[in-house]
Design brief:
- The structure is a single chain.
- The protein has about 400 residues and is an alpha/beta fold.
- The chain is globular.
- Strands 1-7-6-5-4-2-3 form a seven-stranded mixed beta sheet, sandwiched between helices. A four-stranded antiparallel beta sheet has the order 10-11-13-12, covered by helices on one side.
- It is about 40% helix and about 15% strand.
- It folds into two domains: about 10-40 and about 305-395, Aspartate Aminotransferase, domain 1 (Alpha-Beta Complex), CATH 3.90.1150; about 40-290, Aspartate Aminotransferase, domain 2 (3-Layer(aba) Sandwich), CATH 3.40.640.
- Bound molecules: ligand 0PR.
Length: about 400
Protein backbone atom coordinates (compact mmCIF):
# COMPACT_ATOMS: atom_id res chain seq x y z
CA UNK A 1 0.00 0.00 0.00
CA UNK A 2 1.30 3.43 -1.00
CA UNK A 3 2.02 5.57 2.05
CA UNK A 4 0.76 8.95 0.82
CA UNK A 5 1.94 12.07 2.65
CA UNK A 6 -0.75 13.71 4.77
CA UNK A 7 -1.26 17.14 6.26
CA UNK A 8 -0.31 17.68 9.91
CA UNK A 9 -3.92 18.37 10.74
CA UNK A 10 -4.96 14.90 9.58
CA UNK A 11 -2.08 13.29 11.47
CA UNK A 12 -3.03 14.97 14.74
CA UNK A 13 -6.69 14.09 14.24
CA UNK A 14 -5.87 10.41 13.71
CA UNK A 15 -3.47 10.33 16.64
CA UNK A 16 -6.13 11.89 18.85
CA UNK A 17 -8.46 9.07 17.88
CA UNK A 18 -5.85 6.51 18.89
CA UNK A 19 -5.10 8.31 22.15
CA UNK A 20 -8.77 8.51 23.06
CA UNK A 21 -8.61 4.71 23.51
CA UNK A 22 -5.82 5.04 26.12
CA UNK A 23 -6.63 5.38 29.79
CA UNK A 24 -5.45 8.52 31.56
CA UNK A 25 -3.82 8.59 34.97
CA UNK A 26 -5.86 11.65 35.89
CA UNK A 27 -9.08 9.61 35.67
CA UNK A 28 -7.93 7.85 38.83
CA UNK A 29 -8.97 4.52 37.31
CA UNK A 30 -5.44 3.15 36.91
CA UNK A 31 -4.96 1.44 40.24
CA UNK A 32 -2.34 -1.14 39.31
CA UNK A 33 0.54 0.79 37.76
CA UNK A 34 3.91 1.80 39.16
CA UNK A 35 4.02 4.73 36.78
CA UNK A 36 2.09 7.96 37.18
CA UNK A 37 1.27 11.19 35.38
CA UNK A 38 4.71 12.74 34.75
CA UNK A 39 5.13 16.18 36.25
CA UNK A 40 4.46 18.90 33.59
CA UNK A 41 7.97 20.26 34.14
CA UNK A 42 9.55 16.91 33.29
CA UNK A 43 7.48 16.74 30.06
CA UNK A 44 8.60 20.23 29.08
CA UNK A 45 12.26 19.50 29.76
CA UNK A 46 12.00 16.24 27.85
CA UNK A 47 10.89 18.13 24.77
CA UNK A 48 13.85 20.52 25.08
CA UNK A 49 16.37 17.67 25.12
CA UNK A 50 14.89 15.31 22.55
CA UNK A 51 17.96 15.61 20.31
CA UNK A 52 20.47 14.81 23.03
CA UNK A 53 22.17 11.40 22.73
CA UNK A 54 24.30 10.22 25.65
CA UNK A 55 25.41 7.27 23.52
CA UNK A 56 27.79 9.74 21.88
CA UNK A 57 28.25 12.09 24.78
CA UNK A 58 31.22 13.95 23.33
CA UNK A 59 28.64 15.76 21.24
CA UNK A 60 26.52 16.57 24.27
CA UNK A 61 28.94 17.62 27.01
CA UNK A 62 26.22 19.68 28.70
CA UNK A 63 23.85 16.75 29.01
CA UNK A 64 26.71 14.54 30.18
CA UNK A 65 27.30 17.03 33.00
CA UNK A 66 23.58 16.85 33.83
CA UNK A 67 23.74 13.05 34.04
CA UNK A 68 26.77 13.31 36.33
CA UNK A 69 24.81 15.61 38.65
CA UNK A 70 21.76 13.32 38.58
CA UNK A 71 23.86 10.31 39.59
CA UNK A 72 25.43 12.32 42.41
CA UNK A 73 22.17 13.71 43.75
CA UNK A 74 20.40 10.34 43.67
CA UNK A 75 23.42 8.64 45.25
CA UNK A 76 23.31 11.23 48.05
CA UNK A 77 19.77 10.00 48.85
CA UNK A 78 21.32 6.54 49.10
CA UNK A 79 24.22 7.51 51.44
CA UNK A 80 26.95 7.23 48.81
CA UNK A 81 29.70 9.77 48.05
CA UNK A 82 31.65 9.34 44.81
CA UNK A 83 29.12 7.20 42.98
CA UNK A 84 29.34 5.77 39.47
CA UNK A 85 26.25 5.12 37.40
CA UNK A 86 24.04 5.81 34.45
CA UNK A 87 20.60 7.12 33.67
CA UNK A 88 19.03 4.29 31.69
CA UNK A 89 15.69 3.20 30.24
CA UNK A 90 14.27 1.77 33.44
CA UNK A 91 14.60 -0.84 36.15
CA UNK A 92 15.01 -3.66 33.66
CA UNK A 93 18.10 -2.19 32.03
CA UNK A 94 19.55 -1.22 35.40
CA UNK A 95 19.07 -4.74 36.77
CA UNK A 96 20.58 -6.35 33.67
CA UNK A 97 23.60 -4.03 33.93
CA UNK A 98 24.08 -4.95 37.60
CA UNK A 99 23.92 -8.65 36.78
CA UNK A 100 26.46 -8.17 33.98
CA UNK A 101 28.79 -6.42 36.40
CA UNK A 102 28.39 -9.22 38.94
CA UNK A 103 29.06 -11.92 36.38
CA UNK A 104 32.08 -10.18 34.93
CA UNK A 105 33.49 -9.49 38.39
CA UNK A 106 33.15 -13.18 39.26
CA UNK A 107 34.83 -14.13 35.99
CA UNK A 108 37.66 -11.72 36.65
CA UNK A 109 38.23 -12.86 40.22
CA UNK A 110 38.11 -16.52 39.21
CA UNK A 111 40.07 -15.95 35.97
CA UNK A 112 37.31 -17.44 33.82
CA UNK A 113 37.63 -16.63 30.12
CA UNK A 114 34.51 -18.29 28.68
CA UNK A 115 31.30 -16.95 30.20
CA UNK A 116 29.36 -20.17 29.64
CA UNK A 117 31.89 -22.52 31.15
CA UNK A 118 30.39 -22.55 34.66
CA UNK A 119 26.83 -22.80 35.91
CA UNK A 120 26.74 -19.28 37.38
CA UNK A 121 23.99 -18.78 39.95
CA UNK A 122 22.18 -15.66 41.17
CA UNK A 123 20.17 -15.75 44.38
CA UNK A 124 16.95 -13.74 44.19
CA UNK A 125 13.81 -13.64 46.32
CA UNK A 126 10.70 -15.30 44.90
CA UNK A 127 9.26 -11.77 44.85
CA UNK A 128 11.93 -10.38 42.48
CA UNK A 129 10.82 -8.58 39.33
CA UNK A 130 10.75 -10.59 36.09
CA UNK A 131 13.61 -8.47 34.71
CA UNK A 132 15.93 -10.95 36.46
CA UNK A 133 14.47 -13.71 34.30
CA UNK A 134 15.46 -11.66 31.24
CA UNK A 135 18.93 -11.13 32.71
CA UNK A 136 19.26 -14.85 33.40
CA UNK A 137 18.32 -15.71 29.84
CA UNK A 138 20.59 -13.10 28.30
CA UNK A 139 23.62 -13.64 30.53
CA UNK A 140 23.37 -17.39 30.94
CA UNK A 141 23.08 -17.78 34.69
CA UNK A 142 20.72 -19.87 36.78
CA UNK A 143 18.24 -18.14 39.09
CA UNK A 144 17.99 -19.58 42.58
CA UNK A 145 14.65 -18.35 43.90
CA UNK A 146 14.41 -18.01 47.67
CA UNK A 147 11.15 -18.53 49.54
CA UNK A 148 9.61 -15.64 51.43
CA UNK A 149 8.88 -15.46 55.14
CA UNK A 150 5.46 -14.70 56.70
CA UNK A 151 5.84 -11.02 55.81
CA UNK A 152 6.68 -11.76 52.16
CA UNK A 153 10.34 -10.89 52.60
CA UNK A 154 13.36 -12.93 51.53
CA UNK A 155 14.10 -15.67 54.06
CA UNK A 156 17.68 -15.21 55.25
CA UNK A 157 18.18 -18.82 56.32
CA UNK A 158 17.39 -20.07 52.81
CA UNK A 159 19.79 -17.53 51.37
CA UNK A 160 22.61 -18.89 53.53
CA UNK A 161 21.75 -22.48 52.61
CA UNK A 162 21.78 -21.75 48.90
CA UNK A 163 25.11 -19.96 48.57
CA UNK A 164 27.75 -22.07 46.88
CA UNK A 165 30.96 -21.61 44.90
CA UNK A 166 28.99 -20.79 41.72
CA UNK A 167 27.03 -17.92 43.31
CA UNK A 168 27.90 -14.75 41.44
CA UNK A 169 25.38 -12.41 43.09
CA UNK A 170 22.68 -11.98 45.69
CA UNK A 171 19.73 -9.70 44.95
CA UNK A 172 17.49 -8.07 47.55
CA UNK A 173 14.47 -5.92 46.78
CA UNK A 174 13.57 -2.66 48.49
CA UNK A 175 9.93 -2.31 47.49
CA UNK A 176 8.82 -5.55 45.83
CA UNK A 177 6.79 -5.30 42.65
CA UNK A 178 3.76 -7.17 43.98
CA UNK A 179 3.48 -6.01 47.57
CA UNK A 180 6.04 -3.24 48.11
CA UNK A 181 7.90 -5.13 50.83
CA UNK A 182 11.50 -4.43 51.83
CA UNK A 183 13.87 -7.40 52.08
CA UNK A 184 16.28 -7.60 55.07
CA UNK A 185 19.01 -5.68 53.27
CA UNK A 186 21.24 -5.20 56.35
CA UNK A 187 21.44 -8.95 56.94
CA UNK A 188 21.92 -9.70 53.25
CA UNK A 189 24.69 -7.12 53.12
CA UNK A 190 26.48 -8.85 56.00
CA UNK A 191 26.15 -12.24 54.30
CA UNK A 192 27.59 -10.76 51.09
CA UNK A 193 30.57 -9.37 52.99
CA UNK A 194 31.18 -12.65 54.81
CA UNK A 195 31.00 -14.68 51.59
CA UNK A 196 32.56 -12.03 49.35
CA UNK A 197 29.64 -11.99 46.89
CA UNK A 198 28.33 -9.12 44.77
CA UNK A 199 25.11 -7.75 46.32
CA UNK A 200 22.59 -5.81 44.24
CA UNK A 201 19.56 -4.02 45.68
CA UNK A 202 16.59 -3.49 43.40
CA UNK A 203 15.00 -0.30 44.72
CA UNK A 204 13.41 0.57 41.36
CA UNK A 205 10.16 1.26 43.15
CA UNK A 206 11.14 1.94 46.78
CA UNK A 207 14.21 4.06 46.14
CA UNK A 208 12.32 7.30 45.68
CA UNK A 209 10.18 6.69 48.80
CA UNK A 210 12.06 4.91 51.57
CA UNK A 211 14.74 7.57 52.24
CA UNK A 212 12.13 10.33 52.34
CA UNK A 213 9.68 8.40 54.50
CA UNK A 214 12.49 7.65 56.94
CA UNK A 215 13.31 11.37 57.10
CA UNK A 216 9.84 11.95 58.53
CA UNK A 217 9.87 9.10 60.99
CA UNK A 218 8.49 6.04 59.17
CA UNK A 219 11.33 3.89 60.46
CA UNK A 220 11.62 1.61 57.44
CA UNK A 221 14.59 -0.77 57.10
CA UNK A 222 17.88 0.63 55.88
CA UNK A 223 18.47 -0.53 52.31
CA UNK A 224 21.17 1.80 51.01
CA UNK A 225 24.95 2.06 50.56
CA UNK A 226 25.49 2.67 54.27
CA UNK A 227 25.39 -1.14 54.31
CA UNK A 228 28.98 -1.89 53.27
CA UNK A 229 28.05 -5.02 51.32
CA UNK A 230 25.75 -3.23 48.86
CA UNK A 231 27.50 -3.14 45.48
CA UNK A 232 24.81 -1.47 43.35
CA UNK A 233 21.28 -0.10 43.52
CA UNK A 234 18.56 0.24 40.88
CA UNK A 235 16.32 3.28 41.43
CA UNK A 236 13.79 4.56 38.90
CA UNK A 237 12.89 8.24 38.44
CA UNK A 238 9.99 7.17 36.19
CA UNK A 239 8.23 5.47 39.08
CA UNK A 240 7.97 7.54 42.29
CA UNK A 241 10.29 10.24 40.91
CA UNK A 242 7.56 11.81 38.72
CA UNK A 243 9.85 11.88 35.65
CA UNK A 244 8.45 10.99 32.22
CA UNK A 245 9.17 7.51 30.82
CA UNK A 246 11.87 6.28 30.14
CA UNK A 247 14.03 7.14 33.14
CA UNK A 248 15.75 4.49 35.22
CA UNK A 249 18.98 4.66 37.13
CA UNK A 250 21.79 2.33 38.17
CA UNK A 251 24.19 3.45 40.90
CA UNK A 252 27.44 1.59 41.63
CA UNK A 253 29.68 1.80 44.65
CA UNK A 254 32.86 1.25 42.61
CA UNK A 255 34.11 2.41 39.24
CA UNK A 256 35.34 -1.14 38.54
CA UNK A 257 31.77 -2.44 38.39
CA UNK A 258 30.99 -0.11 35.52
CA UNK A 259 34.34 -0.63 33.81
CA UNK A 260 33.79 -4.39 33.87
CA UNK A 261 30.82 -4.02 31.51
CA UNK A 262 32.31 -1.38 29.23
CA UNK A 263 32.99 -2.22 25.62
CA UNK A 264 35.09 -0.17 23.23
CA UNK A 265 33.26 2.21 20.94
CA UNK A 266 36.38 3.59 19.26
CA UNK A 267 34.86 5.55 16.40
CA UNK A 268 32.56 7.59 18.68
CA UNK A 269 33.35 10.64 20.75
CA UNK A 270 32.83 8.44 23.80
CA UNK A 271 35.38 5.63 23.61
CA UNK A 272 33.57 3.23 25.93
CA UNK A 273 29.95 2.23 26.48
CA UNK A 274 28.50 0.24 29.34
CA UNK A 275 24.73 0.63 28.95
CA UNK A 276 22.64 -2.01 27.15
CA UNK A 277 21.23 0.49 24.68
CA UNK A 278 23.59 2.41 22.39
CA UNK A 279 21.83 5.58 21.36
CA UNK A 280 20.62 6.81 24.73
CA UNK A 281 18.14 9.51 25.66
CA UNK A 282 19.74 12.59 27.21
CA UNK A 283 16.21 13.88 27.80
CA UNK A 284 15.81 11.29 30.57
CA UNK A 285 18.76 12.81 32.44
CA UNK A 286 17.58 16.39 31.89
CA UNK A 287 14.00 15.66 32.97
CA UNK A 288 15.22 13.79 36.04
CA UNK A 289 17.58 16.64 36.94
CA UNK A 290 14.71 19.10 36.63
CA UNK A 291 12.51 17.01 38.93
CA UNK A 292 15.27 16.54 41.50
CA UNK A 293 15.82 20.30 41.63
CA UNK A 294 12.14 21.21 41.53
CA UNK A 295 10.98 18.73 44.16
CA UNK A 296 13.99 18.79 46.45
CA UNK A 297 13.97 16.43 49.40
CA UNK A 298 11.05 18.38 50.82
CA UNK A 299 8.88 17.73 47.75
CA UNK A 300 9.69 14.01 47.67
CA UNK A 301 8.98 13.71 51.40
CA UNK A 302 5.56 15.28 50.91
CA UNK A 303 4.84 13.12 47.86
CA UNK A 304 5.82 9.84 49.53
CA UNK A 305 3.96 10.80 52.69
CA UNK A 306 0.74 11.66 50.87
CA UNK A 307 0.87 8.34 48.98
CA UNK A 308 1.32 6.54 52.31
CA UNK A 309 -1.56 8.41 53.93
CA UNK A 310 -3.81 7.33 51.04
CA UNK A 311 -2.45 3.79 51.20
CA UNK A 312 -3.19 3.47 54.90
CA UNK A 313 -6.62 4.97 54.40
CA UNK A 314 -7.38 2.34 51.74
CA UNK A 315 -5.96 -0.50 53.86
CA UNK A 316 -8.06 0.51 56.90
CA UNK A 317 -11.21 0.84 54.80
CA UNK A 318 -10.68 -2.59 53.22
CA UNK A 319 -10.15 -4.15 56.62
CA UNK A 320 -13.34 -2.56 57.96
CA UNK A 321 -15.26 -3.96 54.97
CA UNK A 322 -14.13 -7.49 55.81
CA UNK A 323 -11.43 -7.87 53.15
CA UNK A 324 -8.18 -9.65 54.02
CA UNK A 325 -5.01 -7.62 53.70
CA UNK A 326 -2.23 -9.89 52.46
CA UNK A 327 0.15 -7.99 54.72
CA UNK A 328 0.44 -4.60 56.39
CA UNK A 329 1.74 -2.25 53.66
CA UNK A 330 5.32 -1.05 54.09
CA UNK A 331 5.14 1.15 51.01
CA UNK A 332 2.28 2.40 48.82
CA UNK A 333 0.98 -0.97 47.62
CA UNK A 334 -1.99 -2.87 49.05
CA UNK A 335 -2.73 -6.55 48.35
CA UNK A 336 -6.14 -7.86 49.37
CA UNK A 337 -8.69 -10.61 48.83
CA UNK A 338 -11.98 -11.68 50.42
CA UNK A 339 -12.58 -14.90 52.37
CA UNK A 340 -15.91 -15.54 50.64
CA UNK A 341 -15.22 -14.33 47.08
CA UNK A 342 -13.14 -16.19 44.50
CA UNK A 343 -10.25 -13.92 43.58
CA UNK A 344 -10.82 -14.11 39.81
CA UNK A 345 -14.50 -13.24 40.32
CA UNK A 346 -13.55 -10.33 42.56
CA UNK A 347 -11.13 -8.95 39.97
CA UNK A 348 -13.67 -9.34 37.17
CA UNK A 349 -16.33 -7.51 39.19
CA UNK A 350 -13.92 -4.66 40.00
CA UNK A 351 -12.92 -4.34 36.35
CA UNK A 352 -16.58 -4.43 35.35
CA UNK A 353 -16.94 -1.22 37.35
CA UNK A 354 -14.22 0.33 35.16
CA UNK A 355 -11.29 0.12 37.55
CA UNK A 356 -7.93 -1.17 36.30
CA UNK A 357 -6.31 -3.25 39.01
CA UNK A 358 -3.47 -5.74 38.83
CA UNK A 359 -3.00 -9.04 40.64
CA UNK A 360 -0.38 -10.59 42.81
CA UNK A 361 0.68 -14.18 42.16
CA UNK A 362 1.93 -15.02 45.63
CA UNK A 363 -0.56 -15.18 47.22
CA UNK A 364 -3.26 -14.43 44.68
CA UNK A 365 -4.77 -11.08 45.53
CA UNK A 366 -5.92 -7.79 44.10
CA UNK A 367 -2.96 -5.41 43.92
CA UNK A 368 -3.44 -1.67 44.22
CA UNK A 369 -0.53 0.72 43.79
CA UNK A 370 -1.33 4.10 45.30
CA UNK A 371 0.67 6.32 42.99
CA UNK A 372 0.53 10.14 43.07
CA UNK A 373 -2.32 10.24 40.54
CA UNK A 374 -4.61 8.38 42.98
CA UNK A 375 -6.39 10.92 45.17
CA UNK A 376 -8.46 10.46 48.31
CA UNK A 377 -11.69 10.93 46.31
CA UNK A 378 -10.74 8.09 43.94
CA UNK A 379 -10.23 5.79 46.89
CA UNK A 380 -13.63 6.77 48.32
CA UNK A 381 -15.28 5.94 44.96
CA UNK A 382 -13.39 2.65 44.81
CA UNK A 383 -14.51 1.66 48.30
CA UNK A 384 -18.09 2.52 47.41
CA UNK A 385 -17.92 0.25 44.37
CA UNK A 386 -16.25 -2.50 46.38
CA UNK A 387 -19.10 -2.42 48.91
CA UNK A 388 -21.53 -3.01 46.04
CA UNK A 389 -19.40 -5.81 44.62
CA UNK A 390 -19.32 -7.45 48.04
CA UNK A 391 -23.08 -7.16 48.42
CA UNK A 392 -23.66 -8.79 45.01
CA UNK A 393 -21.53 -11.79 45.92
CA UNK A 394 -22.57 -12.26 49.51
CA UNK A 395 -26.30 -11.93 48.68
CA UNK A 396 -26.24 -14.22 45.67
CA UNK A 397 -24.03 -16.96 47.09
N1 LIG B 1 12.32 -3.76 39.64
C1 LIG B 1 11.14 -3.64 40.28
C2 LIG B 1 11.09 -3.86 41.76
C3 LIG B 1 9.99 -3.31 39.56
O1 LIG B 1 8.81 -3.24 40.20
C4 LIG B 1 10.08 -3.08 38.17
C5 LIG B 1 8.90 -2.71 37.34
C6 LIG B 1 11.35 -3.22 37.55
C7 LIG B 1 12.44 -3.55 38.32
C8 LIG B 1 11.51 -3.00 36.09
O2 LIG B 1 11.36 -1.67 35.78
P1 LIG B 1 11.01 -1.16 34.31
O3 LIG B 1 9.63 -1.64 33.99
O4 LIG B 1 11.15 0.30 34.44
O5 LIG B 1 12.01 -1.75 33.40
N2 LIG B 1 7.70 -2.75 37.95
C9 LIG B 1 6.44 -2.50 37.30
C10 LIG B 1 5.66 -3.80 37.19
O6 LIG B 1 6.09 -4.74 36.56
C11 LIG B 1 6.53 -1.88 35.93
C12 LIG B 1 5.21 -1.36 35.48
C13 LIG B 1 4.92 -0.01 35.55
C14 LIG B 1 4.25 -2.22 34.97
C15 LIG B 1 3.70 0.46 35.14
C16 LIG B 1 3.01 -1.74 34.56
C17 LIG B 1 2.74 -0.41 34.65
O7 LIG B 1 1.52 0.07 34.25
O8 LIG B 1 4.60 -3.85 37.79
Amino acid sequence: MENEPFEEEYIFKKLKEFKSKDLSYSSGRILGSMCSEPHPLSKKVYMDFLDSNLGDHGLFEGTKAIEYEVINIIASFLSLDNPYGKVVTGGTEANIMAMRSARNLYKEINKIKNQFIKPFEVIIPKSAHFSFKKASDMLGFKLVEIDLDDEYKMDIEYVKENINKNTIAIVGVAGTTELGMIDPIEELSQISIDKNIYFHVDAAFGGFSIPFLNDIGYNLPNFDFSNDGVSSITIDPHKMGLTAIPAGCIIYRKKDYLDLISVDSPYLTSKKQSTIVGTRSGAASAATWAMLKYMGKKGYRELANSCMINTNFLADALFKEGFNLVTKPQLNIVGFNHPKIEIDDLIKAIEYKSWKVSTTTYPKAVRIVIMPHIKHTHIMEFIKDLKEVKKEFINTN
